[in-house]
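To illustrate the input format used throughout this study, we show a single complete record. The first block contains the structure-token representation of the backbone; no residue identities are included at this stage. The design step must infer an amino acid for every position from geometry alone.
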């Protein structure tokens, strides 16, 4: 029995040591993993060049920390680097016909991330060993070694973690989020921020067909901020995942009806955020739709009458 215990202890110690060598933690949360935002960097096509991969991630992270939601003052976030070998040719590739769209095998990315944490409350960022500019968002975030990589990572995490849409106007812009207001609501979701001088209202998003605020890295990778409109939405995500707001969210506590009212009791971003200070908006929206329905019925009725008159004249 004693021999079995020693064998098990040795095996567990070996596994723990192997994990400590593979998992490099570069930022620690004051909370448990279940009450934290957990970012896990994994490498593609680095092969056994693990020190190069770690150096690349650390360089990227120093640039990422300049963005408010990732600043050193954030104390509810863990960041790991998984230093585990991957195939030399990697598990990511460019997608035709959009060369900058780089996608990866999600199953392989998850398997690597599992070596550090299997928390469901995690975000995986793949760094593909290429100097090509590109990346993607979705279930995981993807970037490369290019000079634009830190901005690309921040933008893609904006999709995967913070649930924000693209704000640029190209036809390939994707995603739906509270940062792109529709033709009817326009900028009503952040009118209180506009009134406070913290946001703008301008056309943007896919095909310039919606409304957004600027400046924002969700629109331009040269920007150095998410912008106040997006940062307030990000506050909701922090509350949802960690149970608390970061310090930078204090800016929005006295805007409109306050953060708790905006985010909701669960801390989730409203799928169609409205102006918290305007309780009559839903009523106006109902009657506006009713008018549209009436106009459409009237047009169809006139068209039908005209067709009948034309037929009778023949």
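Output of the design step:
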């Amino acid at each position: 029995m004693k021999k079995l215990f020693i064998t098990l202890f040795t095996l567990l110690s070996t596994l723990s040591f192997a994990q400590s060598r593979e998992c490099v933690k570069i930022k620690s949360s004051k909370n448990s993993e279940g009450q934290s935002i957990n970012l896990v960097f994994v490498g593609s096509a680095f092969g056994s060049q693990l020190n190069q991969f770690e150096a690349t991630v650390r360089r990227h992270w120093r640039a990422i920390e300049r963005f408010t939601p990732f600043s050193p003052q954030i104390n509810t976030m863990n960041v790991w680097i998984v230093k585990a070998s991957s195939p030399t040719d990697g598990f990511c590739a460019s997608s035709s016909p959009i060369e900058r769209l780089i996608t990866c095998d999600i199953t392989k990315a998850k398997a690597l991330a599992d070596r550090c944490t299997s928390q469901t409350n995690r975000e995986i960022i793949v760094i593909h060993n290429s100097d090509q500019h590109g990346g993607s968002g979705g279930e995981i975030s993807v970037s490369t070694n290019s000079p634009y990589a830190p901005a690309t990572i921040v933008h893609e995490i904006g999709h995967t973690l913070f649930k924000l849409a693209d704000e640029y106007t190209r036809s390939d812009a994707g995603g739906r989020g509270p940062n792109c207001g529709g033709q009817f609501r326009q900028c009503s979701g952040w009118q209180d921020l506009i009134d406070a001088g913290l946001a703008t209202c301008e056309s943007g998003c896919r095909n310039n067909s919606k409304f957004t605020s600027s400046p924002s890295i969700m629109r331009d990778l040269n920007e150095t901020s998410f912008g106040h409109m997006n940062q307030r939405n990000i506050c909701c995500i922090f509350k949802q995942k960690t149970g608390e707001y970061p310090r930078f969210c204090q800016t929005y506590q006295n805007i409109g009806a306050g953060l708790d009212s905006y985010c909701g009791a669960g801390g989730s971003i409203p799928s169609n955020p409205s102006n918290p200070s305007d309780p009559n908006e839903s009523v106006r929206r109902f009657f506006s739709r009713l008018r549209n329905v009436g106009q459409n019925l009237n047009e169809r009725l006139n068209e039908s009458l005209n067709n009948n008159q034309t037929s009778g004249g023949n």
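Structural context for interpreting the output: The two ends are 104 Å apart (CA to CA). The longest helix spans residues 281-313.
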